[in-house]
Design brief:
The structure holds 2 protein chains of 2 kinds. By secondary structure, chain A is α/β, with parallel strands linked by helices. Chain A has helices at 18-29, 59-63, 67-78, 140-150, 165-177, 190-200, 204-219, 270-274, 315-332, 339-362, 367-372, 387-395, 402-409, 422-433; strands at 11-14, 35-37, 85-87, 91-96, 99-104, 107-112, 115-118, 122-124, 137-139, 157-163, 180-186, 224-225, 229-235, 239-245, 251-255, 258-263, 265-267, 279-282, 287-290, 303-305, 378-380, 385-386, 452-453, 457-459. In chain A, a hairpin with a 3-residue loop joins β13 and β14 (239-245). In chain A, α5 (165-177) packs across α7 (204-219) and α9 packs antiparallel against α10. By secondary structure, chain B is an alpha+beta fold. Chain B folds into 2 domains: 8-48 and 150-217 and 317-377, FAD/NAD(P)-binding domain (3-Layer(bba) Sandwich); 89-142 and 220-314, D-Amino Acid Oxidase, subunit A, domain 2 (D-Amino Acid Oxidase, Chain A, domain 2, 2-Layer Sandwich). Chain B has helices at 15-26, 43-46, 61-71, 74-78, 96-110, 121-127, 149-162, 206-212, 282-295, 345-358, 374-377; strands spanning 8-11, 31-34, 50-51, 89-93, 117-120, 137-141, 145-146, 166-168, 173-179, 182-187, 191-195, 197-200, 219-229, 239-242, 251-255, 261-269, 271-272, 277-278, 303-308, 312-315, 321-324, 331-335. In chain B, strands 4, 5, 6, 13, 14, 15, 16, 19 and 20 form a 9-stranded mixed sheet that branches. In chain B, strands 8-2-1-12-22-21 form a 6-stranded mixed sheet. In chain B, α1 (15-26) links the parallel β1 and β2. The longest helix of chain B is centred in the first third of the chain and has 15 residues, at 96-110. Chain B is globular and about 65 Å long. The chains are: A alpha/beta, B alpha+beta.
Chain lengths: 460, 378
């Protein structure tokens, strides 16, 4: 049964990437005027990040095979102008009691909502490697954004280390842009990719693109090694190279002046945590994620998730889940939505789920590296906490879970609030305790979501 | 079923309970400490970390002095560093009228052996140049300072274990009953513990326990509103608090050697004893900014990276309950420290151990006896 229609419900969408854009678009189509909060300046999110004003590179240079999708998303976002309450360069820094706190230009406003859609995306997932905090080491996503948004490369001779489809895509993009790619070093063994083929075949076009990037690199004699074990990133004031064991156990070194490092992506879940959504351990992602129903409803009434912030499924799936979340919001607000629309979106989402299983099989998070990390390797770069100090919280101080380890050692207590070190730190702690990673729990989220200047004024 | 007998069962593993367990062992008594979660996980672990004596209710000063003496011996006594820095505690104010209150307080506490130095505006800025010109005067307690609350109670807990105490974490007490000469303390999961003496020091949850033991106390819970900045150059050595007739001016702050500035105060927030959660209120976080920057203007260039709260117990008269039960022989209390228990903790542990072991204590704590509420609650 439909509930009575509310007069003018306030729907807030956090994020203006593929998920947030499609959510807003669908809400506008239903006659609503959502508030759209964007940390960026012009919609598009990270994957379809736009270049600054005055930059004139064509879309095919920026987005490659995805140029059509990027252009369409930008066009559709821009078409919403005037029909959404757009808040660019705005940080949703806290959430409490049905209001989201938005900071922009030194002022913070509390916006009460009837429905809140979190389309907060993802960040690089990092497994520490000895030397990873040296200047010249960048997250893969960061390396890609530098190129995409600013036309800057992280170095002239770049080594890409980690795993996941982004490793090959960014290496390809760098090579196309004129950087010398010294090597692509993948911790996932080749055999895993074969095992994943049936699931990856759920999205043949995506699979083909992935194979194209790897083939393109190989054809240009870029060393592409799979099944590697990272030993260290060398250098003093700056990166000079990467040492690894190859899949046959031989020590190899690749020179370079920059490293793009990344092991897949992790969902940004802080706002869902502050909204007190219930989380569950996702064995596939090896991350605690907010529970949702198929349409994005969380355990907190009125709070919805869409896009990579809910599950790492990529940009296409984010557009689908963004529309689905909008449909869920509309239904819960008592607005009509055809069953057929929801069924179609759910169906589209399922193929993407299957593909994700394939990706996680092909490019697993290298858990084994956490246990083998040398004691003097920094895990938490904000607070400079080493693997040894973290292990000591378990062995000597009796920390049975991550929040206790944080209290004792400051791991995850710095500027990033555990967003970068949290997952690796949990693996290090679990390995030290000899327990499954899910039993060491997850760091509790605390506002602000990102650092907030003390000059911020309360605007009522 | 688990369980065992001891001279004392301690209910609640905050700083009070952990310190008492430690000091009981030093007096040769056996002790079992039962903690629902982890040692020092609630208010003991998330408070500001002030080791402050000035500004207290005067009859509390002998206890605070005894605690301060123990703070000075902590690394040796418990074998772990808890980042206690005796670099001073300074109270500042923004008006001449408030300065007069600080001066009067300095005279009052001298009788208790606490020497404060009153510093006027110019001399204050000569010595502590980060203070705003708005600060009119300061009252320096040179031997006080601050420590890391996340470390102190767990360190006492581990020291107690090393000294022979039994500490059971993840063990929730469900009932306390006197059976014959002994108490029987039952825990979730079927544990039964027996002792002739029980100490209830379960913080924000002690009000309910006392009521169930027949000694209701008017009791509320509140959450302090805390935040911390990103690391900044290390400049501020003493712990700082504002004295003002306007409570919302009452910010306190300290800088850890790592560089982060920890602060709180001005407002209390809601706390939820039932769900064991308390939240920093973002509206308060924003209101605190101007108050903070008014004390140390350079902090207006900082950014905060985290906020938090905790669940603190407040008896109706804003003073703790410390001492024996008025109703049940063998039962003792130490709870309701109203957000100012951290400094007292080691002293409370020492005093409770002395009281339980000898039947008396050399430190006067009569003002905190639970019987003061008997008339009010019938």
């Amino acid at each position: 049964m439909a509930k009575p229609v509310k007069p003018s419900p306030v729907v807030v969408v956090i994020g203006a990437g593929p998920a947030g854009t499609r959510t807003a678009e669908r809400l506008v189509a239903a006659g609503l005027r959502p508030v759209v909060v964007d940390e960026g300046r012009r919609g598009g999110g990270q994957i379809y990040r736009r270049q600054p004003d005055g930059f004139r590179r064509p879309a095919t240079d920026l987005y490659g095979f995805e140029a059509g999708k990027a252009t369409a998303l930008h066009r559709d976002f821009d078409a919403l102008a005037g029909r959404i309450d757009y808040r660019p360069e705005t940080l949703a820094w806290h959430l409490q009691d049905g209001a989201v706190h938005l900071a922009r230009d030194g002022r913070s406003t509390a916006v009460r909502y009837d429905a809140l859609v979190l389309a907060t995306g993802a960040t690089d997932r990092v497994m520490p490697v000895p030397g990873w905090t040296r200047p010249g080491v960048f997250g893969l996503g960061g390396a890609q954004i530098a190129l995409k948004a600013q036309a800057c490369a992280i170095g002239g001779r770049v080594v890409f280390l980690g795993t996941g489809p982004l490793l090959y895509l960014v290496a390809y993009q760098y090579a196309k842009a004129g950087a010398l790619v010294e090597a692509v070093l993948d911790t996932s063994p080749w055999s895993r990719r074969l095992a994943a083929m049936p699931a990856l075949a759920a999205r043949p076009a995506m699979l083909a693109k992935g194979m194209y990037y790897a083939g393109w690199l190989a054809a240009r004699r870029v060393p592409v090694l799979t099944g590697v074990t990272p030993l260290g990133i060398d250098g003093d004031a700056h990166v000079t190279g990467v040492r690894i064991l190859d899949s046959a156990g031989r020590a190899r070194r690749f020179d370079g002046d920059a490293v793009g490092l990344g092991f897949g992506l992790r969902s940004e879940t802080q706002l869902a945590d502050l909204a007190r959504c219930r989380f569950a351990f996702d064995p596939l992602a090896r991350q605690w994620l907010p529970e949702t129903d198929p349409d994005g409803r969380t355990s907190t009434p009125g709070v919805y998730l869409a896009g990579d912030g809910a599950r790492i499924l990529g940009a296409d799936a984010a557009e689908v889940s963004g529309r689905l979340a909008a449909c869920a919001v509309l239904r819960d607000l008592g607005r009509p939505v055809a069953d057929g629309e929801i069924d179609g979106l759910r169906r589209a989402g399922r193929a993407m789920q299957r593909f994700r299983h394939g990706l996680e099989t092909a490019f697993p998070w290298p858990v084994r590296l956490a246990a083998g990390l040398p004691d003097d390797t920094v895990v938490c770069r904000c607070e400079a906490v080493t693997a040894g100090e973290l292990r000591r919280t378990a062995s000597e101080l009796g920390a049975p879970e991550v929040n206790r380890a944080k209290a004792f050692s400051r791991v995850g207590m710095g500027r990033c609030q555990g967003r970068y070190c949290g997952l690796a730190g949990a693996e290090v702690l679990a390995a030290a305790l000899g327990v499954p990673v899910e039993s060491v729990g997850r760091q509790r989220g605390q506002g602000p979501v990102k650092p907030l200047p003390t000059t911020t004024e309360f605007a009522s | 079923m688990t369980g065992q007998a001891a001279d004392v069962v301690i209910v609640g593993g905050g700083l009070m309970g952990a310190a008492t367990a430690f000091f009981l062992r030093r007096r040769g008594l056996s002790a079992i400490l039962l903690e629902r979660g982890l040692i020092g996980q609630q208010a003991s672990g998330v408070n500001f970390g002030n080791v402050r004596r000035q500004g207290r209710f005067l009859p509390q000063l002998p206890l605070a002095n005894r605690a301060r003496e123990i703070w000075g011996r902590l690394p040796e006594l418990i074998g772990e560093d808890v980042e206690f820095l005796a670099l001073g505690h300074i109270r500042v104010c923004f008006s001449e009228a408030d300065a007069a209150v600080l001066e009067a307080h300095a005279r009052d506490v001298r009788d208790y052996g606490l020497e404060l130095e009153i510093i006027s505006r110019n001399a204050l800025r000569d010595r502590f140049p980060y203070f705003s010109p708005e600060v009119v005067a300061g009252s320096l307690s040179p031997d006080d300072g601050h420590a890391n609350p996340r470390l102190v109670a767990p360190a006492f807990g581990r020291a107690a274990v090393r000294a022979g105490a039994v500490v059971r974490e993840n063990t929730e007490v469900t009932s306390i009953a006197k059976v014959g000469e002994d108490f029987v303390v039952e825990t979730a999961g079927g544990g039964r513990y027996r002792a002739p003496v029980v100490l209830v020091c379960s913080g924000a949850w002690a009000g309910d326990m006392a009521a169930r033991l027949g000694e209701a106390v008017p009791f509320a819970v509140h959450g302090p509103q805390m935040a911390v900045t990103e690391p900044l150059p290390y400049r501020i050595e003493p712990s700082i608090g504002v004295y003002s007739k306007d409570r919302t001016d009452g910010i306190y702050l300290r800088q850890v050697t790592r560089g982060n500035v920890v602060y709180g105060g001005g407002w209390r927030g809601a706390a939820h004893a039932d769900t064991q959660r308390a939240y920093a209120d973002p509206a308060v976080t924003l209101k605190q900014f101007a108050k903070l920057n008014r004390i140390v203007p350079a902090l207006a260039r900082a950014r905060i990276i985290r906020t938090w709260s905790g669940i603190e117990g407040y008896p109706g008269d804003d003073l703790p309950v410390i001492g024996p039960s008025a109703a049940v022989p063998g039962l003792f209390y130490a709870f309701g420290f109203c957000g100012h228990g951290f400094q007292l903790g080691p002293g409370v542990g020492d005093v409770m151990a002395e009281l339980i072991a000898t039947g008396a204590t050399s430190t006067p704590i009569e003002a905190f006896h639970i019987r003061r509420f008997a008339a009010a609650t019938g």
